[in-house]
Amino acid sequence: MRRTIATLATLGLTVAGLSLATATTASAAGYGCSGSQIGTYNTTAHGEVWATAHLYYSSANGGTNCAVLVARKYAGVPHYMTVAINKSGSSTWKGDDGAFSSYAGPVTVTGTDGHCINLKFAEDNGGLWVGRDVNNVHCG
Prior knowledge:
alpha+beta
């Protein structure tokens, strides 16, 4: 009996762990980015994380980077969000902005092998603007 309970408990923890791993992978794919996540960056105000920018990389098309900004504090509430990405040294930015309740993006830039990436992302909720620039990251 003890062996059966221990086996069931182990199986339950294994299934729970598998479900968590699957949920994480599914949510990343759900943002519309391919490749592997290579970075996360938070926006904060008054000690609270408002949103998290996720940066992905794929070797397709001479290197492709993709970014999304995922709401945390105001998830589920439509509010202004913006995310933009570019290849360092380029004046061309790819961006997405508008009133979103869960995330802004995805935005992609190709031909990034051998180049660094710049990101800009921000949120506005009721006149409080929280944003961040991350420059010259994930050079490769």
